[in-house]
């Protein structure tokens, strides 16, 4: 009887290339534990990142796990094309249904947070990526009508042929055959390098990871969703390889490509899936970058309260402030959760309220929540390139303040500014003059310091903006500042953990010598959530919008 085991020398025996068997649906609530575990181990019911990038229309097929065979020969060069006609570049558009994607168990697919690598020869992956890139470029010369999704399918078919040819060549010169596990890892790594984030992709795909901090190719720190800090695996062989990949990544962006070079050593961009990347090189001893994953997109103030960021009384105050169209600034250090807090505040908006968001890179992603925000326009600024003009801008630059001014004719009732870092604060204040209310963020160590930061930002618009004018504008048009705090602590076991919480909430009103502040919620001397402080008389009206006035006074001891 013929041996039915998969051929270890033939890449077409990979789960990524083999048609999946038909499987009956299993109700995990009633199925025996061992059967459910087997299905999970096979990838059933999971969506691999490989398939998500290829198509969001249909779920991926279950992964097929094979025993590793021993000593088999590679098939003939044309076997792949004969066995899988859709794998040919000419049939790339049909690849989604003909060539299933990798859908392995996440714990196996992803790099372990303790630092385990993916177990592939990265120099070989780099060589294969170069070859695949050249083949793809050549194929696209005659097929320039393909959209990005079809290009990825074409790239996948090219990887199929390239792996088959490489496997056959390896056997021809007496090298050992790849195991099925090796083939699967190499195929995924080459695809990630060509269309994804290369060695960074497993970390970005890991649902346990929230932030990735890299200082040099082999100095990687992962912040998990529970605040734990762990060392991660190297993301390149050398610092130069890491820089080269960042240059490649910035230039290939399908939307809003960014320059990255010695002349422009700073890179800020959004990645597929909504993560934000910030990188720098040449002006630091080693290339450094941070990737921030926004895991909490659909978040509410109650959710944040459940996470210990603020109590129920503070939740009722902020909810009422949003409904009363107060202008709110969320301040705090980097990584304190300002963007998450803004999302939670925006969750209190009426779904039919027409709003605009303004960001340097999309992070709020409110426009991706149509059930919560039905009338929204999302703006993203654009960096320039080349020489700086007489107006101090590079050619093609579209800054936030321009976008804010443009938005005045878009019938907006509220403007949400992702982060105030400069002169755009003046445009934001101008929008506030209509009384519609605004929500924004800025970096600051404390709430009073946030006022000074906003005044400084306003003065960056030019000498015509005096300090007195900036202070008056801030005092008259910004109502509330919510200050976030970030604590980092180490345990006896060596792990570190981060904790985020609201440390104070102040109200701003015009005063004789500039903005006058009142601590509605004052800092807790023992740390953690703030304590009820003093409530200005005119803020008692927030009770009509749901503020728990009785609970506030009880907490304040009055």
Automatic annotation (TrEMBL):
Domain Bacterial type II secretion system protein E residue range list: 240-473
Region (Disordered): 1-92
UniProt GO molecular function: ATP hydrolysis activity
Bias (Basic and acidic residues) ranges: 28-37, 81-91
A Pfam family assignment: T2SSE
Biased composition, class Low complexity, residue ranges: 69-79
Stated family: Belongs to the GSP E family.
Protein name (database record): Type IV secretory pathway ATPase VirB11/archaellum biosynthesis ATPase
């Amino acid at each position: 009887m013929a041996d039915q085991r998969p051929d270890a020398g033939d890449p077409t025996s990979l789960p990524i290339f083999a048609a999946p068997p038909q499987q009956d649906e299993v109700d995990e609530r009633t199925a025996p534990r061992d059967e459910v575990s087997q299905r999970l181990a096979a990838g059933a019911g999971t969506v691999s990142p490989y398939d998500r990038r290829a198509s969001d229309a249909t779920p991926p097929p279950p992964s097929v796990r094979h025993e590793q065979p021993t000593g088999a020969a590679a098939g003939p060069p044309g076997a792949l094309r004969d066995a899988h006609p859709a794998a040919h570049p000419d049939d790339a558009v049909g690849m989604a249904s003909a060539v299933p994607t990798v859908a392995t168990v996440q714990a196996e697919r992803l790099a372990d947070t303790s630092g385990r690598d993916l177990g592939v020869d990265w120099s070989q992956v780099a060589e294969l990526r170069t070859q695949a890139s050249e083949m793809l470029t050549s194929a696209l010369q005659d097929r320039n009508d393909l959209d990005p999704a079809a290009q990825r399918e074409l790239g996948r078919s090219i990887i199929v042929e390239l792996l088959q040819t490489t496997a056959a060549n390896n056997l021809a010169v007496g090298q050992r055959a790849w195991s099925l596990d090796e083939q699967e890892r190499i195929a995924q790594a080459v695809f990630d390098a060509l269309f994804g984030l290369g060695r960074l992709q497993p970390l970005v795909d890991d649902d346990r990871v929230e932030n990735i901090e890299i200082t040099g190719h082999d100095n990687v720190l992962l912040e998990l969703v529970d605040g734990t800090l762990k060392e991660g695996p190297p993301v390149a062989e050398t610092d130069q390889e890491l820089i080269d990949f960042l240059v490649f990544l910035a230039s290939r962006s399908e939307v809003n490509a960014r320059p990255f070079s010695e002349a422009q050593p700073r890179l800020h961009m959004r990645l597929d899936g909504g993560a934000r990347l910030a990188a720098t090189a040449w002006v630091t001893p080693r290339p450094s970058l941070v990737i921030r994953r926004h895991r909490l997109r659909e978040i509410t103030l109650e959710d944040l309260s459940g996470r210990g960021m603020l109590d129920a009384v503070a939740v009722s105050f902020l909810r009422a402030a949003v409904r009363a169209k107060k202008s709110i600034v969320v301040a705090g250090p980097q990584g304190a959760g300002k963007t998450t807090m803004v999302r939670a505040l925006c969750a209190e908006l009426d779904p039919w309220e027409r709003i605009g968001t303004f960001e340097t890179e999309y992070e709020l992603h409110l426009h991706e929540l149509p059930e919560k925000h039905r009338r929204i326009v999302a703006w993203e600024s654009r960096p320039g390139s080349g020489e700086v003009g007489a107006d101090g801008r590079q050619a093609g630059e579209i800054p936030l303040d321009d976008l804010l001014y443009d938005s005045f004719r878009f019938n907006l009732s509220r403007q949400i500014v992702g982060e105030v870092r400069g002169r755009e604060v003046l445009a934001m204040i101008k929008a506030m003059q209509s009384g519609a209310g605004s929500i924004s963020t800025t970096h600051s160590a404390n709430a009073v310091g946030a006022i000074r930061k906003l005044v400084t930002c306003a003065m960056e618009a030019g000498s015509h903006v005096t300090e007195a004018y900036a202070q008056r504008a801030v005092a008259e048009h910004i109502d509330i500042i919510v200050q976030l705090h970030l604590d980092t602590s180490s345990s006896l076991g060596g792990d570190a953990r981060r904790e985020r919480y609201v440390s104070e909430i102040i109200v701003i009103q015009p005063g004789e010598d500039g903005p006058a502040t009142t601590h509605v919620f004052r800092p807790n001397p023992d740390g953690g959530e703030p304590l009820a402080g003093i409530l200005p008389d005119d803020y008692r009206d927030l009770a009509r919008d749901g503020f728990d006035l009785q609970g506030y006074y009880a907490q304040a001891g009055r």
